Amino acid sequence: MPDLVNNKVNSYQKQKNKNEMKKQVISFALMIFFTLIAFIIVGTGSMEKMFAVPVLFILAVVQVGFQFYYFMHLKDKDHEMPAVMIYGGVWAALLTIAGLGVITWW
Amino acid sequence: MSHEDTLNPEVMPNEPEKATLEGKNKFIGLWFFLGGETVLFASLFGTYLALKNSTNNGPDTQELYGLGLVFLMTMILLTSSLTSVYAMYHMKNNDYKKMQLWLAITAVLGLGFLACELYEFAHYITEYGFTFRSSAFGSAFYTLVGFHGGHVIFGLCWLISLMIRNAKRGLNLYNAPKFNSFSLYWHFIDVVWVFIFTVVYLMGKVG
Questions:
Q1: What is the pLDDT of residue A3?
Q2: Closest by CA position to B187, among listed B150, B143, B157, B155
Q3: How many CB pairs under 8 A join A and B?
């Protein structure tokens, strides 16, 4: 085992890490792309408010999905507990927003 | 085998950040913390949405916000998220020097973001007289965006102390979980920013 001497990662693992990095760079490119679309929609004023708001929101959710699943590895195995934590947080967050919305506008 | 040897194995495991019990606990604990942070920011977002039209005759969202600076800030923070991914990539390849380099780039980008935000706030205060106390909109805006900026400041302090404290140690199973926790936190800051630029700035500009 020559790897043992200089404490290096074996080539199989290295290739695996490289492939993972490639996916992350692709998700970064997509995130930049979604951001550009969002800014173009608002910057050019090409969309009516009624459509622009939900489209902007969906673009944000998709971007955050990439951030969670690729950058933060939520897609990998052994991420059941983190998923429980973060979706629990998201659920409570939705309830909070809904509650504040109801007492304000209803 | 002493404790020190356990933390400095001859062959680094594939996931050094989760190879020890402490590492596993840090990983779960940080996600738990992020779940709580989600709720914290949700309550600030809800407050902002409820109060953003209470301008007290001051500037409203459409007058106040400019897209250029926000776009720049978004690009800076998004890129810093990628650079911390690169740092974790080099951590998994057990390349400590490159990890430190990418973390340093992340810190510089974080500082750049912070500088833009300070400029933005100063601009609002001096040009528009839009302060924390000028209206309910002002209070809600500075609380939400300022809390995010505060998280960036905390993240930078965390990162810089980690880098200095471990500068001469090299990567081992003791500090790998620490670097990984920081990178998860930093990604989460970017997640919050995505909602801030969408809900506060872009939707504010739409009306």
A1: 43
A2: B155
A3: 137
Structure tokens at B13: 């495991």
Taken as a whole, chain B contains a residue count of 207
- Given CB atoms, is A78 within the 8 Å cutoff of chain B? yes
Residue A4 has pLDDT above 50, yes or no: no
Q: Is A50 on the interface with B (CB under 8 A)?
A: no
**Domain locations in chain A?**
2-73, 76-106
B77/A65 Cα distance (integer angstroms): 17
Transcribe chain A into DSSP letters. Answer: -THHHHTPPPHHHHHHHHHHHHHHHHHHHHHHHHHHHHHHHHHHT-S-HHHHHHHHHHHHHHHHHHIIIIIT-TTSTT-HHHHHHHHHHHHHHHHHHHHHHHHHH-
Q: What is the pLDDT of residues A24-48, one digit of tens each?
A: 999 999 999 999 999 999 999 888 8
Q: Which residues of A touch B82 (CB under 8 A)?
A: 24-25, 28, 71
Question: Cα–Cα distance between A19 and B99 in angstroms, integer?
Answer: 18
